[in-house]
């Protein structure tokens, strides 16, 4: 497995863990303690976005790739997941409802995972 792919997957794994850690702390009204995983998560977004852009660029660079459209859709869905994670945490911090963001988050996450691991050729699952 390529280092960029591995870094992207590790970045997402770390991002999900940090997201839920901050979410639990915000739910327990521990806003100061939640700031630490939230800020680390924001740094992790940079890793996720950079490696995601590099992977997307590889699909553009591959001559005759029939997966370019799927890669673009996965990139947009991944970007939506990142935005939703941030908006959910900001809404939780302000103690406002984030129901719509949760719905968008789950739809975009499922789409991203299906495309990333199942359909696109750099994924794990057999096509």
UniProtKB/TrEMBL annotation:
<keyword id="KW-1133">Transmembrane helix</keyword>
<comment type="similarity">
    <text>Belongs to the UPF0344 family.</text>
</comment>
<dbReference type="GO" id="GO:0005886">
    <property type="term" value="C:plasma membrane"/>
</dbReference>
<feature type="transmembrane region" description="Helical">
    <location>
        <begin position="72"/>
        <end position="90"/>
    </location>
</feature>
<keyword id="KW-0472">Membrane</keyword>
<dbReference type="Pfam" id="PF07457">
    <property type="entry name" value="DUF1516"/>
</dbReference>
<protein>
    <recommendedName>
        <fullName>UPF0344 protein SAMN05421503_2337</fullName>
    </recommendedName>
</protein>
<feature type="transmembrane region" description="Helical">
    <location>
        <begin position="6"/>
        <end position="27"/>
    </location>
</feature>
<keyword id="KW-0812">Transmembrane</keyword>
<keyword id="KW-1003">Cell membrane</keyword>
<dbReference type="InterPro" id="IPR010899">
    <property type="entry name" value="UPF0344"/>
</dbReference>
<feature type="transmembrane region" description="Helical">
    <location>
        <begin position="39"/>
        <end position="60"/>
    </location>
</feature>
<feature type="transmembrane region" description="Helical">
    <location>
        <begin position="102"/>
        <end position="124"/>
    </location>
</feature>
């Amino acid at each position: 497995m390529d280092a960029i792919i591995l870094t992207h997957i590790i970045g997402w794994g770390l991002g999900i863990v940090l997201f839920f850690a901050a979410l639990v702390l915000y739910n327990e009204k521990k806003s100061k303690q939640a700031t630490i995983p939230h800020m680390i998560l924001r740094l992790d977004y940079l890793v996720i976005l950079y490696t995601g852009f590099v992977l997307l660029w590889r699909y553009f660079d591959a001559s005759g790739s029939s997966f370019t459209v799927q890669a673009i859709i996965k990139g947009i869905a991944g970007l939506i997941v990142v935005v939703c994670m941030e908006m959910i945490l900001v809404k939780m911090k302000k103690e406002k409802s984030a129901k719509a963001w949760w719905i968008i988050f789950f739809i975009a996450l499922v789409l991203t995972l299906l495309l990333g691991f199942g359909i696109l050729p750099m994924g794990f699952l057999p096509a």
